[in-house]
Every structure is written in C-alpha cells, then in structure tokens.
Task: inverse folding
C-alpha cells in the first residue's frame, strides 16, 4: 500500500486543508507503480515568493502556479523527503476562478502535478 507523509506549510493563511491535499496525493499514488510511503513537502506561497524561485531556478521572472524540487538526498531506503512542491495560492486562486472550481480543488491538482514531477513524470 502506498501512502504519503505530508510536511505541509502555508505561509499565506489560506483555508486550504492539508488533509484534503494528502488524500488527493494518496489517491494518485494508488494508481501508480509506487511501492511504500512517500515523504513530500507541500509549501503554499504567494506570487512574489514563487516568482523569485522561478527566476532563480528556471530563469523565468514571472509567477507560476507550481514548482517542484527533487531532493538529491532522497533514497527509497531512508526517511528523507522525495522533494518539495511550492504552490502559488495567488495564481491557483485565479486558475480556480477561471475553471469554476474551488481553490482547494486547484491546490490539490497542483500538488498532484508537483508530486508527479518528483516521481519522474515530465511534460513531453
């Protein structure tokens, strides 16, 4: 059985529920060939914070919805986190409004998107 150990940080004081994010990530893992438990960090931030990270690491000086950073120390045999997923609540709120869904649903999807990147799935 796959599971998620979630280290959840919200610096935006949003109403996002960590347990809902965790449930969504576990649902994704159950559908993938992942064995065991995955430790992942989810950090909710505002546009200026994610813009700085996007400029520094991807050379794109603009906000984005989600960034993921794999942990180079990760090992399946250790308790080290798989990596970190940073989500802009500002951008997520705009996208949720445009899509007609709740902010929680959008953050869940973005957290899942980031998790998939950490697991090695990339855009084609």
Result:
């Amino acid at each position: 059985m796959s599971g998620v150990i979630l280290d959840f940080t919200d610096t935006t004081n949003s109403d996002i529920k960590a347990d809902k994010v965790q449930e969504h990530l576990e649902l994704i893992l159950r559908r993938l060939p992942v064995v065991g438990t995955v430790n992942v960090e989810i950090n909710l931030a505002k546009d200026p914070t994610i813009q700085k990270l996007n400029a520094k690491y991807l050379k794109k000086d603009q906000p984005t919805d989600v960034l993921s950073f794999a942990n180079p120390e990760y090992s399946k045999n250790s308790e080290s986190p798989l990596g970190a997923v940073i989500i802009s609540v500002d951008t997520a709120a705009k996208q949720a409004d445009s899509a007609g869904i709740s902010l929680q649903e959008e953050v869940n999807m973005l957290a899942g998107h980031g998790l998939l990147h950490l697991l090695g799935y990339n855009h084609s």
User: Anything to note?
Assistant: The first helix runs from residue 18 to 30. DSSP finds four helices and four strands in the chain. Residues 43 and 109 are 14 Å apart (CA to CA). Helices lie at 18-30, 47-58, 89-99, 103-118.
